[in-house]
Amino acid sequence: MGNYNNMGFLVLALVGFIFLSKANGAIHYYDFIVQETNFTRLCSTKSILTVNGTLPGPTITVNRGDIAFINVHNQGYYGLTIHWHGVKQPRNPWSDGPENITQCPIQPGTNFTYEVIFSSEEGTLWWHSHSDWTRATVYGAIVILPAAGTTYPFATPDAQETVILGSWFKGDVMEIIEEALSTGGDPNISDAFTINGQPGDLYSCSNETTYRWIVDYGKTYLLRVINAVMNEEQFFAIANHNLTVVAQDAAYIKPITTSYIMITPGQTMDILVTANQPPSHYYMASHPFMDGTGVSHNNSTTTAIVQYNGNYSTPSTTPFPTLPLEADDTAADNFTKQIRALASKEHPIDVPLKIHSRIYMTIAINERICANSSCKGPNGNALSASLNNVSFVIPSVDVLQAYYRGNNGVYRTSFPNKPPNTYNYTGDVGNNTIYPNFGTRVRMIKYGEGVEIIFQGTNVIAPENHPMHLHGFSFYLVGTGAGNFNHTTSPKTYNLVDPPEVNTIAVPKNGWATIRFKADNPGVWFMHCHLERHSSWGMDTVLIVRNGKTKETKIRPPPAYMPPCSKS
């Protein structure tokens, strides 16, 4: 434990113990040392930000309903925060992590202890830094096993394996995004994708370090797949092996047997894989799903080897999986539309049927006007992005602190319930939508309300699929469709019986997606596109769920220590 915040840590631990006695879970302790570490990839060596010197970082393993105290010691060069992606953190936004939304950054030379409260999540989630583009190398898995005395809703697998898809940049990621934001242009694309930190042998200087998953013939494995890629959605497959998807975003689904998956940044999937092929070597591979026309992106392929134990001759040619073509939106839709919640007695769902707050939210790429057309974006302007034509501005004091203390000068509660201008969202959009408003505008929601959000993709500047993520909640994806949402006919297509319960969804290019959830978690919760460049451009907002009327429905008091803000 560091020299900072020791008393705060003890207070946190005591509070956690009191809370835990009601939850009957176990307490876990982790130390995360954030530090610069030299790594060699793609024929060159560079210093990257890591946790505990590894890429990916350490895995957090808990059982359902446990609590983890994670003391983050920042020994790097930049202030940063850590987010526990998909962990609902009931009544505890103080440990959710997005920078200047629920906390200010942990400055170099200091530390901060997160109290990560697990509740109904079961399966795979992940953690990552939530400051600028540091999550390119600061990430790791969260494995949530069934609660003590319970088991999986399928035959217990013989073993488990985690696969994290990532991005590798030869350049300094902080410099890449800082340059892009200062010039107004597109940030440089990544130089490789990775599987568990390794690019695979289709890239230069990578043959000897390709990740290998060693399997035994006849065994069934629970493969936990996480997409930590920065700016691309991904197809993933294993040569000659079926994938049986049994969970997404730490919630069980009706099993889907498929030859491939499409997984967006932020999403996780639990997959049963049986090693039933002739013992040999087989490629697993992943490349992008990108249906946006003219969108700058990495179009390469990362690989790893599934290697059977036993005595056999190494194959002269390793079988390679058949992945859908990069722009195959039909393949992407065919996969995602199969996903249905398990919705069993042991794993029930509770889809809100009565809606109190309905938000119709357009998603768009925009321009910010630059004097004398001096920027590198379209028309000499800077690229930006928006939700309902509002490009979110990150404040210098975190929104949660401002809300809790009643500091009304930090944000405005005027995020619109619908687009300020009605237009043909997925057709000829005209020019009135190119330039957004800029501001820190949030949406207030009463505790206990049934909430419906209709995400509407648009044809503004660069239409593409958008992975939208909401902190603090799992929500139900009740419907998707092509074109403009029709308020009369589209709701008739909703699945209110067994929609998947997730935390990140893919909003189709020039289409729509509707989610529902009950606002039963008071706090300040970030919502954003998980394509990192879009979030950096302002494709974000904040939902503030007000306190309920009882102690158990109010935000918990803040911990004894929070990282100070520069302008608090």
TrEMBL record:
It holds the Pfam family Cu-oxidase_2. Gene3D superfamilies: Cupredoxins - blue copper proteins. Its cofactor is Cu cation. One of its GO terms (cellular component) is apoplast. GO terms for biological process: lignin catabolic process. Keywords: Apoplast, Copper, Glycoprotein, Lignin degradation, Metal-binding, Oxidoreductase, Repeat, Secreted, Signal. The keyword RNA-binding does not apply. It is found in: Secreted, Extracellular space, Apoplast. Binds 4 Cu cations per monomer. It catalyses: 4 hydroquinone + O2 = 4 benzosemiquinone + 2 H2O. Residues 1-25 form the signal peptide. Its EC number is 1.10.3.2. The keyword Glycoprotein applies. CDD domains: CuRO_1_LCC_plant, CuRO_2_LCC_plant, CuRO_3_LCC_plant. GO terms for molecular function: copper ion binding; hydroquinone:oxygen oxidoreductase activity. Residues 34-147, 162-311, 415-548 form the Plastocyanin-like domain. Transmembrane segments: none annotated. InterPro entries: Cu-oxidase-like_N (IPR011707), Cu-oxidase_2nd (IPR001117), Cu-oxidase_C (IPR011706), Cu-oxidase_fam (IPR045087), Cu_oxidase_Cu_BS (IPR002355), Cupredoxin (IPR008972), CuRO_1_LCC (IPR034288), CuRO_2_LCC (IPR034285). Belongs to the multicopper oxidase family. Lignin degradation and detoxification of lignin-derived products. This is Laccase. It comes from Pyrus ussuriensis x Pyrus communis.
